[in-house]
Amino acid sequence: MGIVVQKYGGTSVADKERIFRAARRAVSEYEKGNKVVVVVSAQGDTTDQLIEKAKEINENPSKREMDMLLSTGEQISIALMAMAIEKLGYPVISLTGWQAGIKTDSNHTNARIKEIDTERLQRELDKRNIVVVAGFQGINKYDDITTLGRGGSDTTAVALAAALKADKCEIYTDVDGVYTADPRIVPNASKLKEISYDEMLELATLGAKVLHNRSVELAKKYNIPIVVRSSFNDNEGTVVKEVSSVEKLLVSGVACDKDIARVAVIGVENVPGKAFQIFSLLAKENINVDIILQSIGREKTKDISFTVSKSNLKQTLDVLTKNLHVIGAKDITYADNVAKVSIVGAGMVNNPGVAAMMFEALYDAGINIEMISTSEIKISVLIDEKDAEKAVRAIHDKFKLHLLNSNGK
Known about the structure:
The chain is of the alpha/beta class.
């Protein structure tokens, strides 16, 4: 008898029929003699609707109150899921994040899990209850409700699997697994049989919406294999684990992120410490910076460009504008009509021609590159947002990723 953690996303619990489908899957594991923990997200578009409600009242509400509001979406889901399992005739209990012992830091709307006190969970599992836990939320040291950021229910599921030393962690979603690109953009995208933690982490961070990047970090840290599969059919999913195939793929996937903005600090004095000054100001505000590009100094000045998420753009501009005299820059400009397109593959490290192939694909499609960022297993480019989907398709075709199906990886 083992412990199984199952997570169901918003589309998987969007209505009565889907809730019962998920409930039957949970019951099926329970019938095999396993202890079952079910983590659920808010139904369908509930979170977006709650954000709209907040805007009707206050365009700039405090992050604490946003957490108080957004956490209610999952509370509805856990109660309905528990009622469905109850209706099927099985013992069940629903728990909010704090009832399940999920303790986080105090970074409201994007909190990180610090520890999980499993005492209550173990007690309920020992009573042979199926335990339904609210994803995406926890509690800080001040007993305030916190949320873990968009996609945070994945992180809840993996963290619970780690804390309970679960035998498996299944992430049920509206797609069959992890694909070489978003099938809505690239209809002939291939489903991967397996993918390494590192590749999945890059894809998740770069805009692939299948898994929350922090959930992959946790899975890698505690070596918990994740199975990503559809809640609408019984197809085999994609296994995310430590090492994928011995023969590493040149490119495993193409990701696209439109939630991005480019900021340029113009005419910074070309002396040591200026980059530190700029980025330490942003770090103090918990603003994540991604691609950074610094021009070669000319006339004793240089320009520093970087990308942030669109949600952090206003705050970034406010902080930099307020400190313009400290930084000693002439101007700050920005563009929010950009997108980041990336390729990821563990096989890149030994193949020097990958970047050239990617750039050739973009050149052939008539797409201009604004910024470039590389690491051992990824290459990202910043382009005009209107070209994003065309770029993904061009790159996917160039690397013939649609043919991966033939060997299933």
